[in-house]
Amino acid sequence: MLLTIDKLSKKYKDHVAVKELTLSIEHNQCVALLGPNGSGKTTTLSMLSGLLTPTSGKIVFQGGTTINRHEIGFLPQYPAFFSWMTATEYLHFAGKLSNLSKKELQKKSNEMLYFVGLEDAKNKRIGGFSGGMKQRLGLAQAMLHDPKLLILDEPVSALDPSGRRDVLQMMMELKKKMAILFSTHVLHDAEQVCDHIVMLKEGTVKWAGSLDDLRKRNTEETFILSTEEKLEDWLKSKQYIKEFILTSQTSAELKL
Ligand code: ADP
Predict the structure, then answer these.
(1) 15 close to ligand 1 (CB < 6 Angstrom)
(2) What is the pLDDT averaged over residues 40-63?
(3) pLDDT at 2
(4) According to the model, what pLDDT value does residue 55 have?
(5) More confident residue, 219 or 183
(6) How far is the CA of 84 from the centre of ligand 1 (A)?
(7) Which among 16, 42, 45, 46 is the best mutation to test ligand 1's pocket, defined by most ligand atoms within 8 Å of the CB?
(8) pTM of the entire predicted model
(9) What angle do CA 127, 129, 132 make, to 5 degrees?
(10) What's the CATH code, domain 3-253?
(11) Whose CA is nearest to atom 20 of ligand 1?
(12) What is the per-residue pLDDT for 225?
């Protein structure tokens, strides 16, 4: 097992944001943390990435109780980019924090910019980047040091359909190389990329299992459980997805 979380809890003063959360991730497994706003996704991922200290519970990473920062890649929900930096300068800046040598940094940042499709923009300033380009740069930063686990907090939520498609496709490529834990409030995003889903509600796991198990369940029930939205909203979102697929150039690759 790559990562095991046992009864992890986080309290903000009197408010319990995450309550006795238990889950595990195997090497090269892709797990989606699915839940509505306020269900505890960011709090959970922040504890795993070391930004927040748990109130109680245990995190075991590769058999040890300390998470080696260099083996985790983290993309926060709102990454802080410096708009005056070029994409390459940003990766070199981020890479220094990961203790990579100058030579390694040069090689890895070129490789990663190529992987995320920003090779042509590598000497352009981040200030002129679209949301999708910024998110792809964020992915490049998170992967720079070849982590074993990639933690992505709502990586596609703020993106338009084309940015969303690009980043989801990139995640599908990445999951062949490393384990991914990502949060989303959209079931369709989780379905596309991951084989395992953990549904959070009010800080606790309401359901966890494989995508196949999820498909066997009543769709309406599952959706309401995961997002607390009404069926009409669900149908609207499906309509939106259909429109998105029709306008997408790679529609054949994105099946509903
Ligand atoms: P999600 O990522 O699923 O939207 P969060 O982890 O951000 O959920 O929040 C879980 C709960 O904790 C929410 O009720 C939120 O209001 C609360 N919360 C999050 N951050 C803080 C904070 N810094 N101080 C107090 N309460 C917080």
Answers:
(1) yes
(2) 93
(3) 93
(4) 97
(5) 183
(6) 31
(7) 42
(8) 0.84
(9) 140
(10) 3.40.50.300
(11) 43
(12) 43
Instruction: Please provide residue 169's backbone torsions phi and psi, each rounded to the nearest 5 degrees.
Output: -65, -35
Ligand 1: atom nearest CA of 35 is 3
ipTM confidence: 0.98
3-state secondary structure of 199: strand
Structure tokens at 46: 């922040």
SS (H, E, C) 124-172: CEHHHCCHHHHHHHHHHHHHCCCCCEEEEECCCCCCCHHHHHHHHHHHH
Kindly report the length of the chain: 256
Q: Name the token pair of 103.
A: 């030579």
- CA–centroid distance for 31 within its chain: 9
Report pLDDT digits (tens) over 74-99.
999 888 889 999 999 999 988 887 77
Going through the chain in order, the beta strands assigned E by DSSP cover 3-12, 15-25, 30-34, 56-61, 72-75, 149-153, 179-184, 196-201, 204-210
Other beta carbons within 10 angstroms of residue 13's beta carbon come to 4
Confidence band for 233, pLDDT divided at 50, 70 and 90: low
